Amino acid sequence: MTETGDRRPLTSRNSWWAQSTARWLAGKSVTPNQISQASILAAAVAGLFFYLAGQGLGSARIVFLLLAALSCQLRLLCNLFDGMVAVEGGKAAADGPFWNEFPDRAADILVFAGIGLGIGYPGLGWAAAAFAVLTAYVRELGRASGQGADFSGPMAKQHRMATVTASAVLSIFEPFAGLHNDILRAALWIVAIGAAFTALRRSRNLIRSMKGRV
Question: Peptide bond preceding 154: is omega within 30 degrees of 0, i.e. cis?
Fold first, then answer.
């Protein structure tokens, strides 16, 4: 990641633990691009555990759900530290913009497709993934058009990962209500509809900005 402008606004970026961790990483041989690439691995692991949780029962399912939730958060941490190491740590690379964006799109697909396949609703999983990618496309279209990046929600990246992380934790308690994978299915619906609305909202904002420019 090499960008110094149009960065996603994150309060966690200014926290002491994030600053300390970023400084530690910047002092090591690890590069921002490697951190970005690690986010794909974290997402693949999350998708796998979501798939296994959807197929599993009992204590094994609980373990899979917890590991899936942790992997989603690890993905977000990678997304946080790649930029901090690149910008604040001064380790930006020429190919950083590619590794800043491509892993995020792959990660969304891996997570949501994994959930959908695991719970037996692959179409819903792919729909959530497609609309998630579309939100990023509109954002980058705005940047490429000179209008700046629009990170508005309601289902931006951090919101999507918060939704599936919460659904994983809540799904642990489904057996007490006689449910199975209902919460994960609801989460996919929330992400799909929310991301579609977010893409439309960003599109509207971009069109208005373009017209105002003219």
Answer: yes
Q: What domains can you pick out in the chain, each with its CATH number?
A: 11-213 (1.20.120.1760)
Q: In this structure, which long-range contacts are made by residues 53-56, counting pairs with CB atoms below 8 Å and at least 24 apart in sequence?
A: 53/118, 53/168, 53/171, 53/184, 54/115, 54/117, 54/118, 54/119, 54/120, 54/181, 54/184, 55/118
At position 54, the amino acid (one-letter code) is G
Distance separating alpha carbons of residues 167 and 114, to the nearest angstrom: 14
The closest of 2, 70, 1 to 37, measured between CA atoms, is 1
**pLDDT confidence tier of residue 8, bands split at 50, 70 and 90:** confident
- How distant, in Å, are the alpha carbons of 15, 22, 56 from that of 18? 5, 6, 35
Per residue in 100-129, pLDDT (tens digit) is: 899 999 999 999 999 999 999 999 999 999
